[in-house]
Amino acid sequence: MKWRQLPLGPLQTNCYIFSNNEKECLVIDPGGDAKKLTNILQQQHLKPIAILLTHAHFDHIGAVDDIRTEWNIPVYVHKNEKDWLPNPSLNGSQFFMAGAVKVSEADELIKSEGILTIGNFSLMVYETPGHSPGSVSFYSEEAGLVFSGDALFAGSIGRTDLPGGNHELLIKSIHEKLLVLPEDTLVLSGHGPETSIEAEMERNPFLNGF
């Protein structure tokens, strides 16, 4: 398994391309710059088979419809945010200067935690709410990594001042769902550089009381 990080869109949100040896890939959080993302996928001769959303804030969904249409693939989002994609007041775009972001509804709803199998990909879905009600993290034991969305960052955590945010719930999610993963697990966040579970356990000031 291979992964590539691409900062896209108005907030340079990390989109991830997670690919296998057959050149199939999952596109995680395509936040914008659809043409750039499409060109990279085509240049690498990759075949997207699904779009996964860690949550439905505007800066994570801006290129969803373009990529979905180009490859005719399904979009997955947690059921708690099924109405957010077409609604600027829910996805947060109306509160920022990026203009209203409206995306067609998801094709598949993530209804609970568990193994999500798409083609030859198998990911464990963890519900990690707090930044938003439907935030999820996707863990690949095989690749030793977790796509944490905006729950956990290198040295920081997600903001909780947007609609549906809950600081106490976010801290609980991180401790109970992410910090229990193997310490060498690579954390691929929605913004900023990659980190590891071990590094955040030891040095994240929001989690260790320093």
UniProtKB/TrEMBL annotation:
Recorded hits in SUPFAM superfamilies, A to Z, give: Metallo-hydrolase/oxidoreductase
Domain Metallo-beta-lactamase, residue spans: 12-191
By its UniProt entry, which InterPro entries does this protein fall under? Answer: MBL_Glyoxalase_II, Metallo-B-lactamas, RibonucZ/Hydroxyglut_hydro
**Keyword field contains Hydrolase:** yes
Per UniProt, the keywords (alphabetical) are: Hydrolase, Metal-binding, Zinc
Q: Which residues form a coiled coil?
A: none
Q: Which Pfam families does the record associate with it?
A: Lactamase_B
Q: Which residues cross the membrane?
A: none
**Cofactor(s) needed by this chain:** Zn(2+)
Any single GO molecular-function term of the entry would be: hydrolase activity
Would you say which domain of life the source belongs to? Bacteria
Q: What is this protein called?
A: MBL fold metallo-hydrolase
Organism of origin is Metabacillus sediminilitoris
